[in-house]
Amino acid sequence: MRKWATLIVAVIIVGGALIYFANSRGTAKDEATVQNPPALAQGGGDQSDNGGTVDPEGTSGDGDTASDNGSTSDTEGTSGTGSDATGGAGDGTTGQNAGQTDDGKDSAATGGNSGQDAGNGSDEPAGGTSDNSEFVNTYDVEHVVSNPTSDTVLVNKTYRLPEGYVPPDLVYPDVAFTFSEKIDKRKMRKVAAYALKELFDAAKQDGVYLAGVSGYRSESRQTTLYNNYVDRDGVKAADTYSARPGHSEHQTGLSIDVSGTDGKCAAESCFAGTKEAKWLADHAYEYGFIIRYPEGKESITGYKYEPWHIRYVGKDIAEDVTKKDITLEQYFGSAVPVSK
């Protein structure tokens, strides 16, 4: 009996030890899992200098255009295509902006080395054509660009300009506008202003007469416009055609909304069917400009189609983007310098 009792006790002791050992291993594994959580789905793990994923932003229209003067209303409005109808002379706070289009469209900023350098500091464009799935382009992930003065800077829903940024070399382009006042929205950065004159002069030789509607827009002005749209249409709708403060391409001084000299369809969806729009689509790249928010690319740019919103990026990049039928987000891929 004593022998059997001893054997039973030994079995119990050994079994208990095995169970304890198994539980200890399971606990250690669980702890290791907790210590190594998966990377965030948005923005990639380490969004350092290259801005992680460029995210093309989103929804559909860029809205930046709502003409500041309150005259045009951007047709695009909530549903329309032209988000940025920026227009005429005055820069009324609601006015055309009230239109769905306001300046939200300015998502792409100017930044010479920004994306094109592919993060390697060279001036050669990345020329990438990444798949749309690589882009995040939403306000959920936000980076401040490190090259705001570059004429290839990328500004959209993910990449914003430094707070209160004002371009250093704003001038009045020597071209026709749909208004006569010498106000901010008549200005552009020097390099873009000179290129714009060449573009307008070339159009005139082809019998197409263009006029500026809305160029530079300050962050404070964008704040007013965006807030007006939100009050009218709600945040979700406003974000499809108007950029939030700091995210507007117009603030870079490299973008401008264009129309015919008669001002008809300025920053409105009907502009798409005009001879002016067709000429811009066919020839803008020859002078360093691109149609920043092209049709069918809303899920990448984050804004509705705006055939009137052109952005200066330089002739090489403009030709590459246009010939490949891609967006600035796709061109830069993830090579977008941002501040740490």
TrEMBL record:
InterPro entries the record matches: DD-CPase-like, VanY-like_core_dom, VanY/YodJ_core_dom, Zn_M74/Hedgehog-like
**Which residue ranges have biased composition labelled Low complexity?**
67-84
Which keywords describe this protein according to UniProt? Carboxypeptidase, Hydrolase, Protease
Keyword Hydrolase in record? yes
| One Pfam family matching this protein | VanY
Disordered: where is this region? 35-134
Task: Give EC number(s), comma-separated.
Answer: 3.4.16.4
Q: What is this protein called?
A: D-alanyl-D-alanine carboxypeptidase
Using the record's annotation, list all stretches that form the D-alanyl-D-alanine carboxypeptidase-like core domain. 186-315
Q: Give the Gene Ontology MF terms in alphabetical order.
A: serine-type D-Ala-D-Ala carboxypeptidase activity
